[in-house]
Protein: Prospero domain-containing protein
Organism: Sousa chinensis
Amino acid sequence: MNPNFSLLSQPSRDCSYLAEPRTKDGRSLSPREQGRDSPFPWSQVPSSSLADPDWFWDEHIQAKRARVETIVRGMCLSPNPPVPGNAPARDSPCCPEKARERKRKQNLPVQQGPLKPGPAGDRGSRKGGPRVREQLHLLKQQLKHLQEHILQAAEPKAPAQGPGGSETGEDPLSVKQRDGSGSRSWAVHSDHRQGSSGDLSRVEKHRVSEVKHQSEEPRLLPSGARALLEILKKELTGAISQAVDSVLQKVLLDPSGHLTHLGKSFPGLVPDGRSEPSPPEGGACKDPLPLAALPRSAQPQTGAPLGNLSLAKSLDSPRYPVSPRMIPKPCQGPPANCPLTVPAHIQEDQILSQLLGHRPSGHWRGNLPQDSSPQSHPSSEAALQPWRAAKLQPLALSQRQCPWLFKSTCLERLPLVPSVKMEQGGLQAVTDALPFSSALYISFTSNRSSRCHSPERQEEGLNPGHLKKAKLMFFFTRYPSSNLLKAYFPDVQFNRCITSQMIKWFSNFREFYYIQMEKFARQAISDGVTNPKMLVVLRNSELFRALNMHYNKGNDFEVPDCFLEIASLTLQEFFRAVSAGKDSDPSWKKPIYKIISKLDSDIPEIFKSSSYPQELFRN
DNA sequence: TAAATACCTG
DNA sequence: CAGGTATTTA
């Protein structure tokens, strides 16, 4: 069987996917993990000393943590309105010992050069003062209560599960856990955030009430768990206290409260992005995929030349019959459920640019478990009937744009995504997600073309980040003009060499792209395919994987559907040409190139961000 | 003529 | 990918 081409197996994806930063260790970046621009060394310390022990990931605890943060944030915001540039928004235990215990290491908070100074205008404008201290005391008291409640809350679970109710036998970072607890608790958090204004007491009340709620659980403490609970108690107390203290310290002393990292206050995002308000008019974003989502039996018989696209069109509805798994819970509600509390202009450039890896574009992604929808299993359905591909109407390509609605709503879901890349369980996850450090940046210069030593001492070259960005841009444009490149790489000092280098990149990209296309087209032919319409590039097809591997290695970017369409068309063109024997002509590819060259899509505005390279994790 | 590409190579 | 070269294009 040839899995290269197959039924459209993936439910349509909005082009406005949400990005989700994640670590490799299986957790979504916790809010605090996302703030990396803190100038303080201690803020770089494994922030969550209270988050490490596996059991700390217990839902309850997470919720508590969230609340604590809420409180802290409230305090941060108290003095000033929720201005994006001021809250340090990072708490981290300053305890060295604890820090060392952390397995994950956070680092490189250095801001990247190109970054705008940022709206961190009012730094040091807030000085907690006595009031804050009072609040701190109050907070500590609350923590004690909290501690008690945790004990109680954990009891019911103890019998069946390990200490603290954490799934002992299971990977603490299991998906469900992340999904459930994570987003949930943070949702609450975000609520508070709305009120901001630093009305601590109010927040506290809220919290207390919540705690009470939880304490209503029955007491069934198994003797065995008791000891563990005690430990938990201690740990929790200590850790939280430390965290709170350090945060407060920061709040009180941090003169440079950079970004607030709004992200952290938002509820998890929808992995699939499906719940996101899809672009008004689908453009290339609408796709015929739904087919695969339907039960096989329900799928239209497309084995034969599926000459029209009517089917696909009919499925163009906002909600496809996708597998339940594809519809994440977290923020599935309409935008309204995810109120935005940040001024639009701020999200736009400053904040977003700095929310490393999180783009409203929604293209950044992680390997969500959800991704493994039925369609994602190449070997399953699709493979069974490789040629039963839905037709891809060339006309559909006329709308080559992927409307990128960077609605504020997108922003909310970014940071707390309960998603994580659980691949090699690497520990470098955090560093991977970090923005380029100046150090790295410097090292990149060595990568520059030796012939491109620009006279200017500025020595600004293209770094790996730029390369990655270019690759991602390839998903939208195969033939970018130099002007376009200049527009999308504002942080690059273009000169002849740089320009040609980048042009060269795209040339190389195309080369690979066309080679793959030809290769697969020929393979299809040899496999007996006769109708080019049958050739559709799907996300689970081998061809796609090859391409994705090349342009989006980390797979942290959600490949736009428009690219799949272009790829499909390209494949079909090659198929036609080859099967027609045109490949005997030395320049038989020219016509194809010409066609494809006219199908460039608009590149999301976000790509224009000079700080964009920051989002390019893993160099 | 310079820039952009394609095609080949390492 | 970067180099190099040949060819095409504006």
Observations:
- Residues 11 and 449 of chain A are 42 Å apart (CA to CA).
